[in-house]
Design goal:
The chain is α+β, with helices and mostly antiparallel strands. The chain has 13 helices and 5 strands. Strands 2-1-5-4-3 form a 5-stranded antiparallel sheet. The longest helix is centred in the first third of the chain and has 17 residues. The protein starts with a helix and ends with a strand.
């Protein structure tokens, strides 16, 4: 897939800027015996050499020429120019290519991000925080009351609660439909980190433990995590209705901030 001219110009300017600010020392190049350099940054031929690419090809990329760009070549460019994670992601978004490097998946931190916990406390509506494996990492008082059947169960993982805890079928209104949609949303999440061992273990365990999970998982339905009406059969308040909104924090994209707002009149 060839890029439009405007995107090719943006790509060339992006690479040139990063090449010109990267010193040979920072790029792992020897700095002795090079004589006086006109600029402190790398030369085009040096970047090409670091990437194992031809100088002509790299020059054409900087010039915005209409040439093919493979994901592998872009990955080598990102490594050679020492791009940060955000800069690397921008490079692949700009070129409409998928980064071949596997995402870095670490273990969940011992505590939830402090700034997200502060958001929970500042929110009057029921709100809770999920991590990448859909474990609840924090909630405010309003959510503690609304989701008492879940939180009091001792099960932190939303999927495990929905499919393994008997109380979920009574608490969640229209359980079959909600469980199906919830699982389709989780499948969409798995595409972001297909090699995440934690996700693979969670899916494997649920396939073994829940006939309902296995049946719905094998439907291969996929949905973005959507908002909309959520109804619950609350043990103290009876049937309650909310509008759910899910936010993805820019600084912690592996978390979800879920809020339940008062439902609008029909």
């Amino acid at each position: 897939m060839l890029l439009p001219a405007d995107q090719r110009r943006q790509l060339g300017a992006f690479l040139r800027t990063h090449r010109e600010v990267l010193t040979p020392g920072a790029a792992g190049q020897p700095t002795s015996g090079q004589g006086r350099r006109r600029t402190p940054g790398l030369r085009r031929e040096e970047v090409a050499q670091l990437c194992g690419l031809s100088t002509t090809w790299y020059t054409w990329v900087e010039q915005g020429r209409d040439i093919s760009l493979s994901a592998a070549a872009l990955s080598r460019l990102a490594d050679a120019l020492r791009l940060t994670a955000a800069e690397r992601a921008y490079l692949f978004e700009l070129t409409r290519r998928r980064d071949p490097a596997p995402p870095v998946v670490g273990s969940a931190p011992a505590t939830a991000p402090a700034e997200l916990v502060a958001v929970l406390r500042a929110t009057l509506a029921p709100a809770y925080l999920l991590d990448r494996l859909w474990h609840v990492r924090g909630w405010n008082d309003a959510a503690g009351r609304l989701f008492a059947p879940w939180f009091d169960s001792g099960e932190t993982c939303l999927l495990r609660y929905v499919f393994l805890d008997p109380s979920a079928r009574g608490f969640i209104f229209d359980w079959e439909n909600r469980a199906q949609r919830l699982l389709a949303e989780f499948r969409a999440d798995t595409a972001h980190n297909p090699d995440d061992p934690g996700m693979r273990d969670l899916i494997r365990d649920l396939l073994r433990a829940s006939v309902s999970f296995a049946r719905l998982w094998n439907n291969h339905a996929v949905l973005a995590r959507e908002g909309g009406t959520r109804m619950f059969n609350h043990p103290q308040d009876g049937t309650v209705r909310y509008e759910q909104i899910t936010l993805m924090p820019a600084t912690h994209p592996d978390h979800k901030l879920v809020m339940l707002l008062p439902a609008l009149p029909d």
